[in-house]
Amino acid sequence: MRQADLVIVGGSAAGIEAAIVAQRHYELDKVVVIRKEDSVMVPCGIPYIFGTLGSIDKNVMPDSLLGDAELIKDEVTSIDRASQTVTTAGGEAVKYKRLILASGSQPLRPPIPGMQLDNVFAIPKDAVYLREVQSALSSCSNLVIIGGGFIGVEFADECRKLDMKVTIVEMLDHCLMLALDEQFCCTAENNLRESGVNVITGNGVRALHGQSRVEWVELQDGTRIEADAVIVGIGVSPATKLAQDAGLEIGAQRGIQVDAYMRTSDSQIFAAGDCAETFCYFTRKAVPLRLAAIATREARLATMNLFEDVAPNQGAVGVFSTVVGDTGFCAAGLTEKRARDAGLDVIATEAAAPDRHPGTMPGASGQKTKLVFDRETGKMLGGQATGGTSTGETANLMAALISAGSTARDVACFQLGTHPALTASPIAYQIVNAAEHALVRGR
Fold it and tell me: Which residues of the chain have pLDDT under 50?
């Protein structure tokens, strides 16, 4: 029987990060990573396989990232907590001192009639399956995407480049509505429509129809949409069967229950990433946030806490970014709507300026920024922005300010550096100006 100081089950974002951090922080004799996939996809890069990248092989994370960790390509089928042993489908048994579960998630397949038809695809992080999707889409003329969240929007924006008619169907009033306020959602939808994507909101899918292969989609209002293929992008569910079979506690959002140090109900077992229960930075309640950035952060925390409690989890702020056409969108923390729905009295302010200075600099794009502050405490609760390629890092800056407990005054007095080719003008810096507007309104 093999023995290891640390066994990591799962080799995607959380599993890889756990292996890297374990070797960086501890002098362990042996780290073993067990994953069932032959190769690992970059999770957030999957939609871009079908357009920008054009190849699955360009979206693979190399095994060299694991450093000196031993990699076993097999599926863990059971955990014996009493003997601290995991067993694989191939009959391999590995004894652990500490175990990290990073088993990830699987895409949701809603109970819609016709889901069993050919050319109806959920999108797992599986290279073999994705090759089938790519092959099917290569001869597709009409694609329907169920779900207008980030995955759905990104697939639509990429697949419209493949000379096919693309339709998004979203049940909510707007695409991206769980992460962005209405004005930003509308901008994204307008960009999609201008690029040729048919966007249908406030409507759901009643059934999928066809003989053996999907041929058309029936909406809740009776609308019929021709479809050679359907992509289901409505989210994921935590992969927790292994943990449940081992008797580990499961949380309210169906993830593996963990404490502030990412420890499960077994003190020798930790969990991180999509399989683990995530709680909100603001409400302290469990939330269904499944993001690669959250997964890697949780993996870092879990690994740092393997042998002593040194890095408590403060909860997920929720940081999002995407691009539609040439326009970037990002958000961090609470939207104005979510904050008001939670009963908070907030001040929401905006500022807009070019993201270079002067605005005539090559590559300059207009950037609009919106910040949300708690009226009573002045603390920053959230922010959103839309603009050029700098937008993604704007989300990270906003998340840092939120995590630090910054008030509107703190943000207005924020120390920053600028450069004509890289940032907005120090006079017109969007985040600072939006915070100043909040200060004035809060007097």
Answer: none
Domain layout of the chain by residue ranges: 2-106+237-304, 109-234, 319-441
Looking at the chain, how many residues does it have? 443
Could you say which DSSP state residue 160 is in?
G
pLDDT at 311: 95
Helix (H) or strand (E) holding 432: helix 430-441
- Burial class of residue 83 (count of CB atoms within 10 Å of its CB; 0-12, 13-18, 19+): exposed
Burial class (CB in 10 A: 0-12, 13-18, 19+), 425: middle
Q: pLDDT tens digits, residue range 95-139?
A: 999 999 999 999 999 999 999 999 999 999 999 999 999 999 999
DSSP 171: S
Q: Cα 84 to chain center, whole Å? A: 32
- Strands (E) across 23-164 are located at 31-35, 40-41, 60-61, 70-73, 76-80, 85-88, 93-101, 105-107, 120-122, 142-146
CA 110 – CA 204 distance, rounded (Å): 11
Strands 214-219 and 142-146: unpaired
Q: Would you state the pLDDT for residue 74?
A: 97
- Output the pTM of the full model: 0.94
Q: Which listed CATH number (3.20.20.70, 3.50.50.60, 3.30.465.10, 2.60.120.10) goes with 109-234?
A: 3.50.50.60
For residue 399 the two structure tokens come to: 């998340």
The pair of three-digit structure tokens given for residue 344, joined into one six-digit string: 């908070």
Model confidence pLDDT, tens digit, residues 242-295: 999 999 999 999 999 999 999 999 999 999 999 999 999 999 999 999 999 999
CA neighbor of 148 nearest in space, from 188, 111, 116: 188
Q: Quickly count: other Cβ atoms within 10 Å of residue 272's Cβ.
A: 32
Tokens encoding 49: 């396989």
Q: What is the pLDDT of residue 1?
A: 84
Backbone angles phi, psi at 62, to 5 degrees: -70, 145
Phi, psi of 161 (to 5 degrees): -75, -10
Q: What pLDDT sits at residue 181?
A: 97
- pLDDT value at position 442? 84
H helices present in 267-362, as ranges:
292-304, 336-341
Helix residue spans in 106-147 (DSSP H): 127-137
- Report domain 319-441's class: alpha beta
